[in-house]
Amino acid sequence: REQLGVDMNRILALQKRFGFLLQVEDPESLWSTDPFRYVQIGKHYERMIGDRTKLLLDLNILTFRKKDEITPFPTLIQTGTESFLLVKAASLGAPRFTFYSEQSVNAQDLPFFASAAATDVSYSRSGTLYACESAQSFSLKLGKDVPQIRLDGTVVPASRDNMFFIPAGSHTIETQPGAAGAFSTSQLQPRILSATADISALSYGMREAKFTYDARERMLISFSNEPTQITIDGQPLPCTPMKGNDCFTIELPWGRHEAVVLTGDTFSYGVNVTSLWSTTAIALFGFLAVVLLAALYLFLKVTHRRSHSQGKA
Are 26 and 42 in contact (CB under 8 A)? Predict the structure, then answer.
């Protein structure tokens, strides 16, 4: 308090009174020390606050080291393994964290931060079947050779660079499911692409997504298909989707709720299903036509040879 002009006890009293989130930043003198300091910082403030969900950690990733300064790290900015350890330690120390700043983070590091933050995800593998468990929702990225998975037995197609949204809890994931079938409508069903709160008890229907979520503040959730009807705990909610480049995003109220999101309408869904079946039928017809033409060609060829042989005889 004497050096920084911050009275933490008074701030904590205000936090307990008004319930705001507390974002904690460590002093610059510690920025070149062990990244796992954030685990201890998180535990320290968790004891002071009493509610871990109200805590955030502030990660400073920027050029602050001097060239002539001796540190345990070889770079002037936290990058590579050091930055990954910072993210991992922060995710262990608190449920949320922020960066200062996104602009100064090295571009080659940013895509790996999500993996570094997945500290709560555990899994076991048996062939192509995975059993996973996580206290939080997460996204699973697979190779292009896996266009769909079976999540608890339900076929879920890929989206966004072959990403799959996995809800919190215990689940089974099959990474090489059999073909969904020529007339499968799984490609038409809605999919959750991202969410700003944890989701559990997720199930998909032909036009709907049912799930339970727990949000400390309003939640933004993105779908592959445009939502047209929303029900929260059995009560209708006005629906005003925000269209993005590859998604439709809606806002849901804070708290723990059961939600049902219906996408599209009966007419458009019928048109899409009919189009799918028609396309498949045309493809099958074309394949059968080629096979029949090949068979007819071979039949005529054999018949012509027999007739030619009998004529010579």
Answer: no
Burial of 309 (0-12, 13-18, 19+ CB in 10 A): exposed
Tell me which of 37-51, 52-66, 179-193 is least confident: 179-193
Give residue-wise pLDDT tens across range 232-266: 999 999 989 999 999 999 999 999 999 999 998 76
Whether residues 67 and 171 share a domain: the answer is no
Q: Do 137 and 192 belong together in one domain?
A: yes
Helix (H, G, I), strand (E, B) or coil at 192: strand
Kindly state whether residue 140 falls inside one of the protein's structural domains. Answer: yes
State if pTM tops 0.85.
no
Element (H, E) at 297: helix 266-312
Judge contact between 138 and 121, C-beta under 8 A: yes
d(CA 124, CA 116): 18
Position of tokens 């017809």? 285
Number of domains in the chain: 2
pLDDT digits (tens, 9 = 90+) for 149-184: 999 998 899 988 899 999 999 999 999 765 555 455
Spatial strand order in the sheet of 154-157 = 122-126, 129-134, 169-174, 148-151, 154-157
Residue 34 has what DSSP assignment? Answer: -
Residue 298 domain-assigned (yes or no): no
Q: Is residue 45 within 8 Å of 22, Cβ to Cβ?
A: yes
State how far the alpha carbon of 291 is from the alpha carbons of 183, 284, 297, 299, in Å.
Answer: 21, 11, 10, 12
Return the number of other C-beta atoms located less than 10 Å from residue 308's C-beta.
10
Percent of the residues in the chain that have a pLDDT greater than 90, as a whole number: 59
Tokens of 141: 């990225």
In the prediction, which pLDDT does 82 show?
95
Whether 56 and 143 share a structural domain: no
Same domain, 224 and 109: no
